[in-house]
């Protein structure tokens, strides 16, 4: 290291003073200096100091290490965890300026974690580290239990990981009780029967089946299986653990562009204010431009988020961006604040794979930009996860029917089939997935012996 | 005020356990795919150091993901127009901070060599280590080694050079003696004496027998289509490599037969298509002929493998079984592999199993491509046990 902890503390003091002056509101901050190998390790475990064991983390580690060794990717300059106090790792190999920039960047994230609605309602920062630790300990105890063992635990974890994103996507919405849903359904039916106008012919609609399971299509497949599946206690606990941890990560998935944009906006504005000597100032400008550089053909969330916050500030003033960071998530953020001017300034375009080629479908002109904005809204955050609901559970043989809510995007068949198999691992009975393939309604069926068929 | 924790140089690699498990699963996946790799034609005829790329399956983390008709958004330089192609290999968007950790196609591919494949094959056979030793213990006492000289022995072992040396030694000694006594040298004839004669001392020594010949016999009649041939090819290839591991000197003989058999070279063996009927016995008789001519069973370890689709003309069956029995007498192992037999005929395999009781005979069947691996295993297990 070409600098001492003392120096970092000195710069941190400057940063915090400026951050508070700007009105950032953050949890207490802890920084830990780590080497690049540890950084790769933390990256694989999404930053958590302790997690349950699973080969997928080992795979992530190997992949990151390989990419790093082949120079295909840089390492993150930092890693920051949504917890209170906020935990951040700084990489030892960074230059002094990078550490300063990174620290400022971390305060941006920290403020976002503390104030964004999704994080406030969807996660409990005070107990984050304890939660992951507790989960890790419990799963390890199952592994060490001779009547369960590593392979059985792994099988359940594999299956749980396969559907971990098939959970409630809306943060902070209360689950209605069965009784409430039943009442709603009956009222709906009553209204329908009463409101018939005189000119319409009388149609008899069957009364709704209030004993159906689920009463309404259920998007939280994890919850549904945990509740109605024939799982043993430890299996159910593992499923619930994976679900709970995914819920913790959903706000991050849902605010990637905003969160990075916000942090980039603040490291930029803070570093301009802390009287960097000119030797460091040049490096600051260069590094900052690297971070927010557009990627040709792809979309750098730092770039889009940073530009949007700058644009919003220009149009509505600084108070507005604080409000936006509290209220929005990526989808609403983009839907509300991405303008045609910005679209064309950033040269956004929409592409699609046709045959072996990626073809540009839309560019940011008068008629194209709204399509681009809508596509972006639909594909950011949880929008990249296919929306699949449980629509029926047969009372006779427990066959589970899933419905892919088709929005023009088809499922990858290979992955869908393998995932349905994983669901059978948990469910133990036939699982049917209704979807559309090549424009045709298709059923992917997997019976309890894990034989696949299509109809 | 933030708290700083300084760098702790103690390496605490907590990913070790998960990486070990991941590696284990990768290897498992390779093994599971070996059958497919082996039945792939491209591996044939490659040297054992050649590396094969195998995509590793089973390590994907499956989830519901979108497929082909999913639009994406990118940023460009403003020159893009509708309908432009932006390449067939889209670059993944990643910020310089490396924030991208999006689930992409898993790019795992690993390279292994033929040697690795054979190693996996051996491991897969699940043999106790004891059995493996047998590889190198094939000894014969036929070989003799000269070890020094002796004064008395039989004429054929006369060591001429040594005898001459003995004579020269005697002559030189005489010269010196004459000098000492001041006598001049007479240029007389100086004959060999009984004392000069030396004979080789010969000791019997067990030697590792390291010659092997593989006789690959294949039915090339019309019914053997190219798929069957590819399978046969893979089969012979792996067996040949396996036997190569065991012996220093391995020769391979290719015999193709229809109603008549002939010895061919490797290229002809795998590519030439012939038409006509099938007398399997012709192949066996040719093999017997070649063994008698060139490969004395007391010096050679003989392996014969025959691949066919199980069809044989009825009148030949008896001759065929007789010849097979004779082959068994001469060979370390005689293997018969039936490839993709049609179901409506009584295949020769059953007749062979009935007619050939010698334990050096083994018959296996490959009903579909995937069974190649199992068939090989069955055959090699046998070879190693008996070997």
Automatic annotation (TrEMBL), chain A:
Residue ranges of every copy of the SpoVR-like C-terminal domain listed in the record: 386-436
Pfam family of the protein (one): SpoVR_C
Coiled-coil regions listed: none
Domain annotation SpoVR protein-like N-terminal: ranges: 3-383
Segment forming the signal sequence: none
Listed InterPro entries: Spore_V_R (IPR007390), SpoVR-like_C (IPR057008), SpoVR_N (IPR056174)
Matches recorded under PANTHER family: STAGE V SPORULATION PROTEIN R
Protein name from the UniProt record: Stage V sporulation protein R
Source species of the chain: Fervidicella metallireducens AeB
High-level lineage: Bacteria, Bacillati, Bacillota, Clostridia, Eubacteriales
Automatic annotation (TrEMBL), chain B:
NCBIfam families listed in its UniProt record: spore_yhbH
InterPro entries for the chain: Spore_YhbH, UPF0229, vWFA_dom_sf
Similarity-based family: Belongs to the UPF0229 family.
Alphabetized Pfam families for the sequence: DUF444
Coiled coil feature spans: none
Protein name per the record: UPF0229 protein Q428_07565
CDD domains, sorted: vWFA
Annotated region described as Disordered, given as residue ranges: 70-105
Compositionally biased region (Basic and acidic residues): 78-92
């Amino acid at each position: 290291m070409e600098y001492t902890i003392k120096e970092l503390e000195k710069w941190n003091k400057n940063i915090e003073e400026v951050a508070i002056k700007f009105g950032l509101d953050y949890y207490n901050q802890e920084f830990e200096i780590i080497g690049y190998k540890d950084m790769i390790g933390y990256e694989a475990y999404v930053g958590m100091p302790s997690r349950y064991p699973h080969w997928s983390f080992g795979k992530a580690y190997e992949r990151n290490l390989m990419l790093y060794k082949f120079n295909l990717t840089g390492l993150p300059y930092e890693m920051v965890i949504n917890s209170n106090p906020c935990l951040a790792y700084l990489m030892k190999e960074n230059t002094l300026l990078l550490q300063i920039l990174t620290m400022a960047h971390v305060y941006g994230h920290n403020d976002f974690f503390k104030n964004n609605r999704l994080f406030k309602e969807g996660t409990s920062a005070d107990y984050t580290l304890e939660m992951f630790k507790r989960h890790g300990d419990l799963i390890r105890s199952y592994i060490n239990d001779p009547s369960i063992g590593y392979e059985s635990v792994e099988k359940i974890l594999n299956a749980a990981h396969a559907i971990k994103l098939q959970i409630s996507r809306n943060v902070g919405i209360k689950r209605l009780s069965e009784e409430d849903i039943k009442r709603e359904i009956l009222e709906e039916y009553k209204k329908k029967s009463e409101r018939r106008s005189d000119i319409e012919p009388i149609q008899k609609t069957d009364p709704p089946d209030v004993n159906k399971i689920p009463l309404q299509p259920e998007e939280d497949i994890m919850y549904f299986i945990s509740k109605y599946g024939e799982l043993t206690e430890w299996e159910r606990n593992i499923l619930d653990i994976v679900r709970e941890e995914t819920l913790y990560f959903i706000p991050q998935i849902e605010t990637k562009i905003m969160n990075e944009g916000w942090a980039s906006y603040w490291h930029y504005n803070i570093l301009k204010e802390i009287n960097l000597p000119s030797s460091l100032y040049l490096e600051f400008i260069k590094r900052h431009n690297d971070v927010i550089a557009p990627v040709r053909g792809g979309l750098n969330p730092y770039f889009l988020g940073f530009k949007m916050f700058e644009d919003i500030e220009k149009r509505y003033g600084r108070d507005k961006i604080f409000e936006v960071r509290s209220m929005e998530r990526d989808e609403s953020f983009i839907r509300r604040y991405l303008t045609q001017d910005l679209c064309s300034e950033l040269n956004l375009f929409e592409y699609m794979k046709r045959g072996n080629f990626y073809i540009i479908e839309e560019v940011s002109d008068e008629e194209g930009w709204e399509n681009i904005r809508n596509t972006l809204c639909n594909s950011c955050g949880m929008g990249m996860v296919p929306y699949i609901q449980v629509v029926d559970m047969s009372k006779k043989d427990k066959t589970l029917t899933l419905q892919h809510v088709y929005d023009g995007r088809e499922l990858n068949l290979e992955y869908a089939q393998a995932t349905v198999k994983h669901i059978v691992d948990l469910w133990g009975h036939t699982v049917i997935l209704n979807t559309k393939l090549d424009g045709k309604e298709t059923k992917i069926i997997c019976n309890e012996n894990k034989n696949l068929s299509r109809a | 005020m933030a708290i700083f924790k300084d760098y702790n140089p103690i390496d605490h690699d907590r990913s070790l356990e998960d990486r070990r498990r991941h590696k284990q699963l990768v290897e498992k996946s390779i093994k599971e795919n070996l059958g497919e790799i082996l039945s792939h034609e491209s591996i044939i005829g490659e040297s054992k150091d050649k590396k094969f790329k195998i995509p590793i399956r089973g390590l994907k983390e499956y989830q519901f993901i979108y497929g082909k008709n999913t639009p994406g958004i990118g940023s460009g330089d403003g020159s893009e127009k509708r309908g432009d192609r932006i390449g067939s290999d889209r670059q993944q968007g990643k910020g310089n901070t490396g924030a991208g950790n999006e689930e992409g196609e898993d790019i795992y591919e690993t390279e292994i060599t033929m040697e690795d494949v054979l190693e996996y094959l051996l491991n897969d056979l699940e043999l106790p280590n004891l059995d493996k030793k047998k590889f190198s213990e094939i000894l014969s006492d036929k070989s003799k080694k000269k070890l020094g000289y002796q004064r008395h022995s039989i004429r054929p072992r006369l060591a001429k050079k040594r005898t001459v040396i003995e004579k020269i030694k005697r002559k030189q000694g005489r010269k010196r003696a004459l000098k000492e006594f001041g006598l001049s040298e007479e240029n007389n004839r100086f004959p060999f004496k009984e004392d000069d004669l030396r004979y080789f001392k010969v000791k019997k020594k067990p030697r590792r027998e390291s010659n092997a010949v593989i006789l690959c016999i294949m039915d090339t009649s019309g019914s053997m289509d190219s798929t069957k041939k590819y399978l046969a090819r893979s089969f012979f290839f792996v067996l040949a490599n396996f036997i190569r591991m065991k012996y220093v000197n391995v020769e391979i003989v290719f015999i193709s037969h229809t109603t008549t058999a002939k010895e061919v070279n490797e290229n002809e063996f795998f590519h030439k298509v012939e038409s006509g009927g099938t007398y399997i016995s012709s192949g066996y008789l040719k093999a017997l002929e070649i063994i008698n001519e060139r490969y004395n069973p007391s010096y050679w370890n003989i392996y014969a493998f025959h691949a066919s689709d199980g069809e044989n003309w009825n009148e030949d069956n008896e001759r065929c079984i007789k010849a097979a029995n004779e082959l068994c007498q001469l060979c370390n192992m005689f293997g018969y592999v039936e490839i993709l037999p049609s179901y409506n005929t009584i295949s020769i395999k059953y007749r062979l199993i009935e007619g050939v009781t010698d334990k050096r005979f083994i018959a296996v069947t490959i009903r579909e491509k995937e069974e190649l691996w199992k068939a090989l295993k069955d055959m090699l297990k046998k070879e190693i046990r008996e070997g």
